[in-house]
# Entry
Amino acid sequence: MPSAVSAGPWMRIRGLTKSFAGELALDHADLDIERGKVHGLVGANGAGKSTLIRCLAGVTLADEGSVTVSGEDLQKGSPRASEQAGLAFIHQELNLIPHFNALQNMLLGAPKVTRFGIIDWQRSGVAARAAAERVGIRFPLETKVSELSVAQRWLVMISKALVRDASMIAMDEPTASLSGPESEQLFAIIRDLSAQGVAILYVSHRLEEVLQLCDRITVLRDGRIVDAAERGALDKKGLVRAIIGHDIRPPDERARFATNRSRQPILSVRDIAWKSAVKGVRFDLYPGEVLALGGLVGAGRTELAHLMAGVTRPDAGHFELDGKRLDIANEAQAIRAGIALVPEERRSQGVMLQQSVGFNINISTLKKLRAVPGLPFVSDRKARRQAEGLVARLGIKTPSVKTKIGGLSGGNQQKALIARWLNAGTKLLILDEPSRGVDVGAREEIHDAIRALARSGVGILAISSDVEELTLLADRVLVMREGRITGELTGADITEARIIELSYHDANDEEGNIA
Amino acid sequence: MMVQAGTAAKDAPPLRKSSWKRTALIWLSRYGTIVGLLLMVVFFSANAPGIFLSRANFLNILSQASLTAIIASGLTYTLVVGEFDLSIGYVASFVGLIVTGLMAYQGFPISLSIVCALLLGAAIGAFNGVLVTKVRINAVISTLGVGTMLTGIGFTYSSFPIATGIPRPFTDIALGRLVFGLPNPVIIMVIVLIVLWVILNKTDVGQKMQAVGSNLEAARLSGIRVDRIKIFAFATAGFCAALTGTLLSSLLGSGTLAAADGYLLDAFAAVFLGSATLREGEFHISGTLIGVLILAVGFNGLSIFGAPTHFQPIFKGAILVLAVGMSALARRYAASA
# Structure
């Protein structure tokens, strides 16, 4: 029997189908996976990528279809069977135990050498140390995971898969929280593993990466596989068309708004410093413009956003809003002054998942929705009308405002979080990674909404680690490095190359900052 | 190819079965408690028609339920904001002792004693809230600590039950029937439930409480003063506990140490039963009422059928475990739906 199948692909997925509540999430997907190849899996949110992965992992039970590994049927709906077949899965959330060290995490659930029931970490760790060496881990494996960077945690997860002798490693959005060089390091490891005969299933929204890294690309749309191509057969434009079903406007057709510096700034940031993360930042934000903040992960951008939104208080420096000095003690005060933050972590800091779309939109404007001014009663009618108006204005796709927000796609959840601030008297909206984990189509809609907001006079500060996004969205770009602003780009200077350059080198070491 | 078609056909029936099972489980997790309550009523009515199915017995059930309902609806608030309050039983006992003491020892008039008692309860609750939000002590620990301290302080205040010197009109409060011939505690319960329901569902504060319970960080970033909201929830729980304690003293005609301690478990069982009612694991006032009624009807049935009194804790404990289990199941199905 094994000799008969050795000619076929290592893993053969046939007619895999799964529906949730009558909706087909995965519709008769066929896919072959070969060892030693990097397989890219792309598609919009809700296209069925995660369902496919979850079915392979045995976390979700497929309704129909079969998966064979080396010619043998894989038992469906059993995570244990999937693991024994050599399949490893690294999800975006990185299922690591923060207060265990790297070694303990790698060996979690793996057999260990014990003496009288006591674990001998030294001897148990042999395989783990070999795996760590294979992926080039340089930090001591006794380091607690909570002290590791996101990139280092990825290395731990990959080593964990190698300890289990995985033949295939599926990775979900590995570069979403990695900086440029960290991503490059990961790609090198992936190529290495692939050369050693490991199959890689690479899921990402970042199409350049996929095009650059993957030997074969499969595109999912609405649960169906709509395209599958070998390396070189697809370019980015073709990939985008396959994902969303139509073209998007090329970035060079977009007009950038020219910042008018003779007007009074909405917000002036004056020598703000906080711990070692933000080292005296100074800039102005003008009406009508989308000001974007670029730089590597850890450059101090999120920390700066938190200082502006009142999450933390600066050690030094101050803010001026509409020319008046402003002290912000907490989030509520910042919001009252007109500064709001759409945070980086949508699920843990943004949406209230089990509440409705309307509830999520209205929560920041309850006072305006009172039935009778002065009395604390919220008018259901006013609340529904406001939510429905904002849903229509931002094109949020939801069956109704009463639908629980958890049922919406990431892009629509993000739009609802922006909607939260549209009637709240917001003067300055800070968006931290506005399109993280959102598909290309939704990203464009979010960008349109942000731009419209800026033109209407709301100040916009957008933070993104996605260099392409910065070039698409920004009218003016500030780049941060190690807590300082290292340069400013406007107009035609806003290119990926310039942004990356400034992320690593200080353009004006003398002055340090841009006023 | 043949093999493939075969496996596909073989796989089809389990799908239908499993989704049918799912629908049934979701239905059960929403309406199971109400069905359970109705089944109990039908069963007791059929087997003890003369005793169970009478106006007098129903009023008896309701007045027993009313004290639990009041304390449990206050507890609901702390659970809505994602916290815990293990002190409520002790607060009720303590306040029950103090309210009689104020009349008997300090010679306060009835109305002033009651006002002081209720404010004291709210203040203890607010103190719990400050410990949890400002000092950041885990709610289980801080409320257990405060509750235990209250027991000791109560003992210091009066080491024996206060039975003499309590004016008659005070005991009439719980025993009287001012409206529609309904016992007063039932009327007070109805008012408390309505007020708490309106605050939770129709006001700013209520929406903010739900936001805080759903996602603390998101609530903070939406400009909600989450600490204040939590303190308000704890203060409400303390107030409701004080009200239950006061009514119990009035009912017993005395202030007794540890008299209301047992309400803690009843309240938790009721609130968790309620969270598995109509909604998927969310805490809400009407659910809490259903939970209280299940307990009251159950206890009533047990005593009608002459079950030994030690059956009561067995029933109570079993209901608590069942309720928390159902609540967790409901939440899990809501998450996977």
Confidence is low (pLDDT under 50) at residues 1-5, 509-515 of chain A. The interface with chain B takes residues 14-15, 21, 61, 63-66, 309, 311, 330-332, 334-336, 340-341, 343, 348-355, 359, 362-364, 366-367, 370, 376-378, 406, 420, 424 of chain A (CB under 8 Å).
